Inverse folding.
């Protein structure tokens, strides 16, 4: 359940405060990779139905 909360917090586009630019860029990369993974899983589910 904590994993889903972390994914939701990554996908919400609220500003990161008090963090360096490296951490912000890593959050952006994580958001992109998680959304691509979710889209790929949806496509796989649709193709298998």
């Amino acid at each position: 359940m904590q994993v889903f909360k972390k994914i939701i917090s990554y996908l919400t586009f609220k500003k990161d405060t008090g963090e360096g630019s490296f951490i912000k860029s890593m959050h952006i990369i994580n958001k992109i990779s998680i959304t691509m993974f979710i889209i790929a899983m949806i496509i796989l589910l649709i193709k298998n139905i």
